[in-house]
Amino acid sequence: MLEQIGQNAKAAARFLLTAGELKNKALYAIADALIEKTDEIVKANEIDLQAARENGTRASLIDRLILTPARIEGMADGVRQVAALPDPVGKVLDGTVRPNGLKIEKVKVPLGVIAIIYEARPNVTSDAAALCLKSGNAVILRGGKEAINSNKCIADIMRNAIEKAGLPKDCISLIEDTSRESSVALMQLTKYVDVLIPRGGAGLIKAVVENSKVPVIETGAGVCHVYVDESADIDMAANIIFNAKTSRPSVCNAIETILVHKDIAEKALPAIKAKLDEKDVTLRCCERSAAILGSGVEAATEDDWYTEYGDYILAVKVVDSIDEAIAHISKYSTGHSEAIVTKSYKAAQKFTDEVDSAAVYVNASTRFTDGGEFGLGAEIGIATQKLHARGPLGLNELTSMKFIIRGDGQVR
Amino acid sequence: MLEQIGQNAKAAARFLLTAGELKNKALYAIADALIEKTDEIVKANEIDLQAARENGTRASLIDRLILTPARIEGMADGVRQVAALPDPVGKVLDGTVRPNGLKIEKVKVPLGVIAIIYEARPNVTSDAAALCLKSGNAVILRGGKEAINSNKCIADIMRNAIEKAGLPKDCISLIEDTSRESSVALMQLTKYVDVLIPRGGAGLIKAVVENSKVPVIETGAGVCHVYVDESADIDMAANIIFNAKTSRPSVCNAIETILVHKDIAEKALPAIKAKLDEKDVTLRCCERSAAILGSGVEAATEDDWYTEYGDYILAVKVVDSIDEAIAHISKYSTGHSEAIVTKSYKAAQKFTDEVDSAAVYVNASTRFTDGGEFGLGAEIGIATQKLHARGPLGLNELTSMKFIIRGDGQVR
């Protein structure tokens, strides 16, 4: 079954290599069909919601699962936005003529077949399919069991829409078996799948990275830091920390730990705490920061430095120097986003040179790590690995490249 | 032990982030030291050679193992050539100012710690170390047991040389335990190793791809094709096939199969065979090509289409159309290099559009797939995968990138 899906996807991917403008036609057809079939989607979604309620699923998860007509319109808009982006395929990245007359070009090509393993949000079904299709890739979707009825309905609508537009249905496929086995089998499908992208919580990503034989683009986990340098503007530091922690604590570009230089800690920490108190943020403090802040804070343990709270909790540590701050980040960060708040040119240069994360900020909130905010268009996640792509995973990152060499009989 | 090597390499990699010109100083010091200590290397190599002879190792493998003063001079020259290449680190790939005033730059950075698992050739020890060091990466080398004495000697010389030049010794390390276990353990060292590159035969590469938890850049295996289109110049086709098969049959960019259009097969096949007879190439033919060529050829089986002979053997198949040729390549190729010989503009366009391999040629030999021939400088192998790098793996491909964002207090 999975073997057949893989084989069909690979054949569809060959078709997509030269599909050109048909891809956009198909994307607009998907958007129209989603709107037209809103009632069908809402009905399918209702089955998932009822099952979730019966299983006593918590409210925040049910909220992720709900598809209202407004949300479906949002999904269709998202697909149209992707259609309107420039097509990355065929872009000439480099080119040269060699002394022997060979003309060598390096051009962007699709990756081939992309598999996406994701969790509860059914809107990922159309988001991910649109990004893959636009970049010329066939996609195999494997969503969570909580949203299976919604996902089946959305996938069917998309498959029919692209077929009418002239593309093979199998450019988009959904694995309907949501067992753990189907997910593990997908990770072994090296014959047909070129890349696997997990999208979801830390547990899912870890399982995929550890078990996949298909190459993985790792997205997600963010233990992000703000370092408050001795020369920082304290108001700016408090504002940035407040924004980076509380504007949306559940997302991966929110911060989990602040590091404060010892020479500014006495003044800065009370100001930072006062601001965070507006949203009742719990502080988990090292000994020195606890001594400065007094009562109303908790003690941090070694585990705290590694933890992505995803909640109104912040770990706090006083450091002796910028070197200690960078060493702490090097040890505990997941390599997502880190910021320094400073007035010092030298400290800013040192921090941006030596901190090895996907996004390194000076005097700005880590919350900007996002394809849209970076001006890159829609994205499928934030890559925290170092191979292939790092940072927002947009259309460009869903491509590979090849060399084309034109000669007139050259031999070596 | 391995844990300690990993930890030291990671610390050295942090130092390398800002090592700048010290890297070149260290590379020239390595080259000088290799020349200066030629006798030492030759002596250590003699121990390996003696063991190989006692084990009845075949001559071709012993030839790969031998280090003469001339070969050591070649190694030193290779290191100097790498030193003379431009430094990829710090290159600004892209940059923009966002409407909110954030200045965003995408810059090249080192990957971090690169591990290389390789087989008998001891010259890889200095080649790989030079490329990794130049691109700002610490390297962990794990060579084969046949060359362990040579490798230890070369690694020691390099470590001492870079230390004198001002870099930490641990920018280069060698795993002296050549057991299978040490190799498997290295593949699990995700905490310290950012990328693993296997360099060697198909067996080694398969083992690494299947077992590594560390991200892998796959290099190597080449089942390459030449397709002779119905409109081909027959002399050109015979020349290109002769060159691509016989100039160096053991390398990955040599061809293994030719596909010949049915409308030119009667004329082309005898001419191609006549040329290949000069080097006694064995032909493994499909039924139709065998019928044309008559006696003196062998019958091809299904397995032949998948096989990288690395020898004076060539599989031959007659196809009905360019579509059949492309479908054959899509099924049996390892995605390395393929060529079409044609006078037709349309066929050339179709072939380069639809063949999905790292290098696609029109009217030229596949033997040009090489960093030097492409004008990219030294390389560590040819990547046949689609993520991160495809084709020659040079200095640029040994880097990652990060975003640097400069603001003045922006929050989201």
Walkthrough of the structure:
- The structure is a homodimer of 412-residue chains.
- Chain A has 412 residues and is of the alpha/beta class.
- Chain A has 2 domains: 2-219 and 386-406, 3-Layer(aba) Sandwich (Aldehyde Dehydrogenase, Chain A, domain 1); 224-372, 3-Layer(aba) Sandwich (Aldehyde Dehydrogenase, Chain A, domain 2), CATH 3.40.309.
- Chain A contains 15 helices and 16 strands.
- The model of chain A has no long low-confidence stretch (mean pLDDT 95).
Provide the descriptors you would attach to this structure in a database record.
412 residues; 7-stranded parallel β-sheet; 44% helix; homodimer; Aldehyde Dehydrogenase, Chain A, domain 2; alpha/beta
Number of strands of chain A: 16
Oligomeric state of the chains present here: homodimer
Q: Kindly report how far apart the N and C termini of chain A lie.
A: 46 Å
As for the number of domains of chain A, it is: 2
Largest interface comes to: A-B, 67 and 67 residues
Shape descriptor of chain A reads: globular
CATH architecture of the largest domain in chain A: 3-Layer(aba) Sandwich
| Radius of gyration of chain A, whole Å | 24 Å
Q: Please name the CATH topology of the largest domain in chain A.
A: Aldehyde Dehydrogenase, Chain A, domain 1
Give the fraction of residues assigned to helices of chain A. 40-55%
If you average the pLDDT of chain A, what whole number results? 95
Low-pLDDT runs of 5+ residues of chain A are none
Structural class of chain A: alpha/beta
